[in-house]
Amino acid sequence: MTQRRIVGRRRLRCRRRAALGGLVSLTASLYAAGGAIDTGGFVTRSPTVEAFDPATNTWTTKSPMPTARWALGIGVADNRLYAVGGADAQEAPLAVTEMYDPSTGSWSGVAPMPTLRGWLAVGSATNALYVVGGSTCNLGAAAGCELTTSEVLRTIRQPVRTWLFSRATPLQVTSR
Hints:
mainly beta; Neuraminidase; four-stranded antiparallel beta sheet; disordered N terminus
């Protein structure tokens, strides 16, 4: 067994306090996006995006997402950040997908997912974004809304770059 010693640690202190947002690594920075903010008894969905630069130990506010949401998934493919699904102000799941290009600092819309889903997981491999699980119901809804499906967002580069969602292999769910 290999032992590792922690040499130092940094406290990543965001300027905002949000829950159920997303965090990814992109262009040597950590990007925090979306989430829910408690504003004194009311929960507000956040469009805020911030980037943490570990070299300078600072946060920078970036262009906000066009759609404020929480319970979203975020991932990186093709050197761009993707905000996928999530929940709106009424806690209803969303199919919306938006792309942030750090080289221009701007957001653009992408084809929506075929399935509304919040509380989902997102991962990436080979310039494709994989969306897994989640729920099709509001947060307070009864059980039975859990998704075992997954979808993949792939790039088609010719003649122009286009992103399209397609169904991926379903999750294998077992009970214990």
